[in-house]
Amino acid sequence: MDWKRQLRRDGFLEIDGFRIELSLDNTFMDLEYIPRIIVYDYENGKWHVLRNPIEGSSSFEELWDNAVETLERIVNGEEEPIFGDEEVGKRFIKSLKALRD
Question: Tag placement on the chain: N or C end, fewer CB within 10 Å?
Fold first, then answer.
């Protein structure tokens, strides 16, 4: 199955060393939800929030689609992942190469 459809359908994706999940955040109790991509790093046992901007929307469907499109740009090398930890970003990019094949 195409990784984008699987992520969109299941809400998560397992790749070598990482678990990628789609999430929605409304930390400030706003009426709008903010789409998030969170990544579990099995090597260091920590969750990381991908800080790349994801376009908002008025529907959950579009929020998920926008998050997947952001991840797709990272997979295609059009954007660098922003985690705040350069080492995690490098390992993440290396693992994402499997999705291009």
Answer: C
43-55 per-position pLDDT tens digit: 999 999 999 999 8
Report pTM: 0.89
- Other CB atoms within a 10 A radius of the CB of residue 39 amount to 23
Domain boundaries, the chain: 3-99
Assess contact for 79 and 5: CB atoms under 8 A: no
Cα 1 from Cα 30, distance rounded (Å): 36
